[in-house]
Task: structure prediction
Amino acid sequence: MEGESTRQQKVARQLQRDLAEIIREKGTAVFGGAMISVTAVRISPDLSVAKVYVSIFPSSKVKEAFAIVEASAKSIRGELGRRVSKQLRIVPELNFLIDDSLDYVEHIDELLKK
Result:
């Protein structure tokens, strides 16, 4: 977040809320039974590209669910466009990335139990 303008931060927060809602409305069935959370959004200074970090549970379904998310990117972006058309001139390109920080925490927990 450091170095980001206030506008970037506001837009990123709004996109995170909207994307989380869009994904939640699609439901877990669409994503192969996996639960998907939008953990963070980082947006470029010109607001044209958004990196969308998603966390997928359970971790056994990450590959399958992430492939579905990427395949759905166009329709997700379309829905996002309908929601933010009043606030943003252009709808940012969405680049989905896996946020594996939960896996990392799980891994540390496992190591600490030994």
